[in-house]
Amino acid sequence: MTKNREMMNEKELTELAELFKVFGDSSRIKILYALFETEMGVGDIADTIDMTISAVSHQLRILKQNHLVKSRRDGKSIFYSLDDDHVYKILAMGKEHIEE
Amino acid sequence: MTKNREMMNEKELTELAELFKVFGDSSRIKILYALFETEMGVGDIADTIDMTISAVSHQLRILKQNHLVKSRRDGKSIFYSLDDDHVYKILAMGKEHIEE
DNA sequence: TAATTAGTTGAACAGATGTTCAAATGATGA
DNA sequence: TCATCATTTGAACATCTGTTCAACTAATTA
Questions:
Q1: Strand D footprint, Cβ within 7 Å
Q2: How far apart are CA B22 and CA B66, in angstroms?
Q3: How many domains are contained in chain B?
């Protein structure tokens, strides 16, 4: 588990920080958490977590750029879902820490 | 692994975001990474990652408040070290994600 | 084609964040 | 006690970030 420590260079550390920055906002965390249940359209996400559609859309763009969610269009709607099972692992790990 | 999902409430999600926010800065990530090697005084950390002592001290305060590092005084120096092995797990998980 | 539904986009704004600088604190040794 | 070393602290500053609002695009249906 510790064998790759020495392979982290400055660029990689910066990338790591960028990734965690994405998780470091409660709106985005709520969106990700909502998407654990099921894929959803933007309007449904907004209703679920009580944000405007525009704000959710802006945040979804960030999540998508970072490969944490993916989308598919179906008619007028665009359904978003989690892109990667690391997402859950990372959240679970953080949760473990704060619950101590 | 998924059994605790439904126990995340809004407050807990906000706490989670706060935790990730702490990881979401490259200076703090570099400090944590430096401390994987060994405990260090503030000046040595500053040298290692090329920051001013003051900037490092400010960031160490944030890391300490969030229970990611702990400190002990020995004479004039204050040695910092990682407080929790979740720190490494969380970093390792993030690293796994960006390396895909 | 016009109206409607669903979502995106960009500019503007307010609030948060990280660094710097200078001053202050605490421990040690002369 | 005075000087020095190691670190902390607070204010000021510039930058970054998230939300809002209005305008826009895309797909569907009347």
A1: A 21, 24-25, 27-28, 51-52, 54-55, 58-59, 62, 73, 75-76; B 41-44, 53-54, 56-58, 60-61, 71, 76-79
A2: 8
A3: 1
- Coil, strand or helix at B73: strand
What is the CA angle B15-B18-B19, rounded to 5?
90
Q: Is A55 on the interface with B (CB under 8 A)?
A: no
**pLDDT value of residue B89:** 80
In a domain, A5, yes or no: no
Percent of chain A whose pLDDT exceeds 70: 92
B2 located within any domain: no
Question: Considering the domain boundaries, does residue A71 fall inside one?
Answer: yes
Alpha-carbon distance B23 to nearest alpha carbon in chain A (angstroms): 6
